[in-house]
Predict the structure of Membrane protein.
Amino acid sequence: MLLRSVVLPVTATSRRDLVERLVQLLVGLFLYGVALGFMVRGGIGVAPWDVLALGLAEQTGLRYGVMTVVVSIVVLLLWIPLRQRVGLGTVLNALLVGPSADLALALIPQPASVWIGAPMFVFGLLLLSFATGLYIAADFGPGPRDGLMTGLVRRTGWAVWLVRTLIEGGVLLIGFLLGGPVGVGTVLFAFGVGPLIGWFLPRITRMREARSQKLGLLRSA
């Protein structure tokens, strides 16, 4: 009973559906980390949470990916007083995105100029939005940061936009003070990620739901 109160149940229309959704989740999280690598290498600024992770990495000497995992774990600890339920996707998000970002940074060369770096950032933003659609549509629970936002909205009764603004604004300020990179890319992310995920997510979700329904019908046939 206690486990059910803190862990989201895993449901599937069939074993094949479960396996396909797990693969989709893992691919989405891997691509999310790769996208972060492209955005960091772009050198024109990064998203607020990455400003924080890079600022902490600068101060501690730890790799960016390692610090991303540390930040995710700290955020998950903040779920406890909010009584948020953790999903498999939540845990894997916290543990896998950072290492895949470090792998991408090890393989992606430093751009020679901003004219190369800026398109790298834009590509990373597009890839991140697609990857977000993949892992959310797999339906294994929210990521650590999204869960923090929804938990605070539920507990405080404040508007989503206000809670998100306060969280990301605070994170951005702390990261900037720690030496994290803030730039044009930070603004592009702030205004671009919402519409891009809004385009990818419904389409991927419809495809996943249709596929899951088909697999469920095949199982019962």
Observations:
- The radius of gyration is 18 Å.
- The longest helix spans residues 184-220.
- The CA atoms of residues 65 and 102 lie 5 Å apart.
- Residues 15-211 form one domain.
